[in-house]
Amino acid sequence: MKKYILTLVLALFAFATQAQSGKNFLDQSYIEVTGVAFKEVTPDEIYLNVRIDEKDNKGKESLEQLERKMLKKLESLGINLDDQVTLNDLASNFQFYFLKRTDVFATKAYTVKVSTGKKAGEVIGELAELGISNVTLDRVEYSDEETLKMEVKALAVKNAKTKAAALAGALDQQVGKAIHIQEFDSPRMYRADAMEIKVRGVGGLNKQEAPEIAFDKIRVDATVQVKFLMD
């Protein structure tokens, strides 16, 4: 019984302390503002889908020959075959195309990762020279995404303080320390939809100049709500 009474007393004490603390918070003068910020960065991870297909050269070369030529060319462009080239799901991408009852052509799909639009252009142009023209853009990413999100959130808080100071200054007051920070949403990443890149042949390509490829920047937005004490 004594233990129960002691527990009840402690609970009431904690509730009273919390209530008093809340009252003190409401009694203080504060200003509440919303801060927004964004940053745009150039993607540094570009993923290209490359499909090699026997039917592209009407069976003049086997799939294995096309594959060896492609990998050798990628390596000559400075592409690390272990880190930057991935064979897609073999079970779903090794398919057979029946053009006639007696004609069977095979295909394989790879993903090639590069870091710049210039390198992507080099890959597309050089593969087209080999007769491998089925290249599409899979997606673009930014390698240090989490750091970027934190930078944008911090910038949003700074913008909130600037806004609060301007509003308080209109009343001949100053803002004090922040007493509450709330993030409305996690920073949002905006990427352009993956567009299709196709090289239909080498006729329109200058061997001395890789095709120019530009990618939309990735944008990160952040919104925060901050309460500052008023002096």
TrEMBL record:
<feature type="signal peptide">
    <location>
        <begin position="1"/>
        <end position="19"/>
    </location>
</feature>
<dbReference type="InterPro" id="IPR052022">
    <property type="entry name" value="26kDa_periplasmic_antigen"/>
</dbReference>
<protein>
    <recommendedName>
        <fullName>SIMPL domain-containing protein</fullName>
    </recommendedName>
</protein>
<dbReference type="InterPro" id="IPR007497">
    <property type="entry name" value="SIMPL/DUF541"/>
</dbReference>
<dbReference type="GO" id="GO:0006974">
    <property type="term" value="P:DNA damage response"/>
</dbReference>
<dbReference type="Pfam" id="PF04402">
    <property type="entry name" value="SIMPL"/>
</dbReference>
<keyword id="KW-0732">Signal</keyword>
